[in-house]
Amino acid sequence: MSCLCWNVQDFRNPDTSTALRKVLRKAYLGLVFLSKTKFVGNRANDFKFYISFPNGFVVDSVERNGGLLLLQDSWDVSIRSYSRGLIDSIITSEFSTQWHFIGFYRSPYTKNCKFSSDLLRKLHSLYLPWVCGKDFNEILSFSEKLDGNDR
């Protein structure tokens, strides 16, 4: 079984929802982490049923920014903690294998990067194997940058 991590940008675009639904129909995924969903309230719950993934944990967006969604199929997920940019969980997958999953979204604003870095530093204290599904909002090459200030 596999995992999918995706920065969806915004589900108001119906092409995004349709594309995700097609991927989920073809792949047998135990865990799906979506960042930047911009969901608030029941919109996330409605979406979970639309894509036939009714089990999951939602972190609402704030002022139309962010939003996280952690969906599971047959795996047991225990949420340890969460915040605007993080879902910290323990996963029990097939054969009772336990591992740590952290779904992470780093703010694109440089002023908020210290908060994101502090969260990641805590990973070294984990007692289980771990996976970090993330969107670090980081540019690897200046050729990727279209406008705005340099970092």
Q: What is the CATH class name?
A: Alpha Beta
Helix content: 10-25%
Number of strands: 8
One letter per element, helices H and strands E, the order comes to EHEHEEEEEHE
In CATH terms, the superfamily is Endonuclease/exonuclease/phosphatase
Strand content bin: 35-45%
* Residue-averaged pLDDT: 78
The count of domains is 1
Shape: globular
Uncertain ranges: none
Q: Name the structural class.
A: alpha/beta
Rg value: 16 Å
Put simply, the count of helices is 3
- Architecture (CATH level 2) name: 4-Layer Sandwich
Sheet with the most strands: spatial strand order: 1-2-4-3
- Assembly classification: single chain
Briefly note the CATH topology name. Deoxyribonuclease I, Chain A
Taking the sheet with the most strands, its summary is: 4 strands, mixed
Folded structure, characterized:
By secondary structure, this protein is α/β, with parallel strands linked by helices. It has a single domain (about 1-140), classed as Endonuclease/exonuclease/phosphatase (Deoxyribonuclease I, Chain A). Helix content is about 20%, strand content about 35%. The strands form 2 sheets. The chain has a 4-stranded mixed beta sheet with strand order 1-2-4-3, covered by helices on one side. Strands 5-6-7-8 form a 4-stranded mixed beta sheet, with no helix packed on it. The model has no long low-confidence stretch (mean pLDDT about 80).
